[in-house]
Write a structure and sequence with these properties.
Elements (H helix, E strand, L loop, with lengths): L25 H16 L4 E3 L9 E5 L14 E13 L2 E8 L2 E10 L2 E7 L5 E7 H14 L10 H18 L1
Antiparallel strand pairs: 1-2, 2-3, 3-6, 4-5, 6-7
The chain binds nickel (II) ion.
């Protein structure tokens, strides 16, 4: 397994819509394993393929996310192929939502409380499940990535401009 480079905003591939995956090849399986490892190493609870420069509809997430009884040492991830949200209800505010592709910034984001996700698993079998709370936020956040949307696209214009100013200052300092 290989640790992948996580691209950060304003990298172009993060803002592009990703194409549906046609076939789950050995390369795709290897990619999801690398993505899982990269996610846990970061550490994060979810990672979408465009974040590692692959504009295909693939996400991975921490299988124990949102489960308070889970053994935190047990690092297991789930990969979803071509995931989509088919139903959504309720409303919550994610507290200090962040993203491995958006450095040094978190914000509260308005999200649905419950979503129904339809996808294929890594073996190509259709899966459908309901996600609530933290898991629902992860699903919305990661599936947004497949449409070229970052959580900073879902906050107020004012907050976003503050973040962009902070970032451009930081990038200039680096030069
Ligand atoms: Ni993200």
């Amino acid at each position: 397994m290989t640790l992948l480079k996580i691209l950060t905003y304003p990298e172009k591939s993060l803002s592009l819509p990703s194409a549906p995956l046609e076939e789950i090849t050995d390369e795709v399986i290897a990619l999801t394993k690398d993505m899982g490892e990269t996610m846990f190493e970061a550490p994060g609870v979810g990672l979408a393929a465009p974040q590692v420069g692959v504009n295909k509809r693939i996400i991975v997430y921490d299988s124990n996310a949102g489960n308070p009884e889970a053994d935190r040492e047990q690092k297991e991830f789930t990969a979803l192929i071509n995931p989509e949200i088919t139903a959504a209800s309720g409303s919550i505010v994610s507290e200090e939502e962040g993203c491995l592709s958006v450095v040094d910034y978190t914000s509260d984001v308005k999200r649905y409380e419950t979503v129904t996700v339809k996808a294929q698993d890594i073996d190509g079998n259709p899966v459908e499940f309901e996600a609530k709370g933290i898991l629902a936020v992860i699903m919305q956040h990661e599936i947004d990535h497949l449409d070229g949307i970052l959580f900073i696209d879902r906050i107020s214009v004012l907050k976003r401009s503050i973040y962009k100013k902070k970032l451009s200052k930081k990038l200039k300092e680096k030069e």
